[in-house]
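User: Some background: our group keeps a shared notebook of sequences we're curious about, and every so often someone picks one and asks for a predicted structure to add to the entry. Today it's my turn. The entry only has the sequence so far, pasted here. Could you supply the structure so I can complete it?
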Amino acid sequence: MARPLVVTERAILADYVKAGQTALVVPPEDPTSLRDVIAQILADAALGNSLVRAARASIERHLTTRHEAQRLAPIFRAVAAR
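Assistant: Of course. Here's the predicted structure to add to the notebook entry:
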């Protein structure tokens, strides 16, 4: 969607974002940090563009449907073999 990403720090997101590279990460339940990071992105277009480009490249390298199928296929084969 070509938008900079701000997320709250959650273990489930660790496989999908790299803090400071593909997204900016704030502590959970910290609206002040969230506000500050959003303001930072709005004030720094280069930062936002950098996050967008890095996130897109990461997704194309690691998170396509082909990648997901390759990760899941062995699991499905193992279950089917039971």
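Suggested note for the entry: The first helix runs from residue 31 to 43. Helices lie at 31-43, 45-62, 65-80.
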